[in-house]
Each structure stands twice: as C-alpha cells, then as structure tokens.
From TrEMBL:
Gene3D superfamilies: ApaG domain (2.60.40.1470)
Protein name in UniProt: Co2+/Mg2+ efflux protein ApaG
Residue intervals of the ApaG domain: 12-136
NCBIfam families tied to this protein: PRK05461.1 (NF003967)
Lineage: Bacteria, Pseudomonadati, Pseudomonadota, Alphaproteobacteria, Sphingomonadales
InterPro entries registered for this protein in UniProt: ApaG-like, ApaG_domain, ApaG_sf
Top-level taxon in the UniProt lineage: Bacteria
PROSITE patterns: APAG
A Pfam family reported for this protein in Swiss-Prot or TrEMBL: DUF525
Source organism: Croceibacterium soli
Length: 137
C-alpha cells in the first residue's frame, strides 16, 4: 500500500540514506497582508534509510524573501527535540515561517550524529514560499 502522506510532500532531498521531505502551506488566517506579514506552515518528515541509528543534533536554515533579504537560523534540534531514529524510523514535525513579502524560500541542513559518534550533514531541500495572487497584496 502506498503511503498517502508521501503524496502531500512536495520537495525531497536524500543525503547519506536520510530522506527529508517537505510539504508547505500558506496560512491566510495567520497572515496580515495589509500589515505586510505573510505566514507559512511547513511539515517535515525525516526518514532514516541507513543501517545504523542516528540522532538529529542541530538545524541550519537559509530563509530569503523576495527583496533579497536572507535570514540564517541555527539552533539545537527541531521544535525543541533532538530525535533518535533507528533504521527505518521517521520523525515528523510542523513549524512555521513569517515573511515581510508574499514570496520567498527556505533551504538548509541538519547535523546528525551516527552510532560511531561521527557528525554528518543532511540537506533540507529548497522549497518556495509563495502566497496565492489574491493574498499577495
């Protein structure tokens, strides 16, 4: 049976056997277009396709708006968690991103530690943030 959620994910990157899938949605009810504030929610699924257990330690985001402003965000874990993923396991989380423009993008990477203590980076795929034309202001 095909996993119905996989059809929701619009962007995917696979690095060293770890898949990062992203689904993004514009949230008009959380945006204030007249005040120049647009808001998106993104759902990320991280899947461990490796033969060893790994732990997510940090995240690095590069968030850009349509004016060319770039915001770099670094931090521990994701939404307050540093999940440990055994082979075949996945971790899902949802977060949000406000922008001062109706269009932008996000991309980045996670840093993981494997069972031998080695650190490695896993790409977060590039994904656009685009408000529908009616909400673009």
């Amino acid at each position: 049976m095909i996993d119905a959620l996989h059809s929701l994910f619009q962007h995917t990157a696979i690095t060293d056997g770890v898949s990062v899938r992203v689904a993004v949605s514009f949230m008009p009810e959380q945006s204030q277009v007249e005040a120049g504030k647009w808001f998106w929610v993104y759902h990320i699924r991280i899947e461990n396709g490796r033969d060893d257990t790994i732990q997510l330690l940090t995240r690095h985001w590069r968030i850009s708006d349509s004016r060319g402003m770039i915001n770099l965000v670094d931090g521990e874990g994701v939404v307050g968690e540093t999940p440990i993923l055994a082979p075949g396991e996945s971790h899902d989380y949802v977060s949000g991103c406000p922008l001062p423009t109706p269009h932008g993008s996000m991309q980045g990477h996670y840093t993981f530690r494997d069972q031998q203590g080695q650190l490695f980076e896993v790409a977060i795929p590039f994904f656009p943030l685009a408000a529908p034309a009616a909400a673009a202001g």
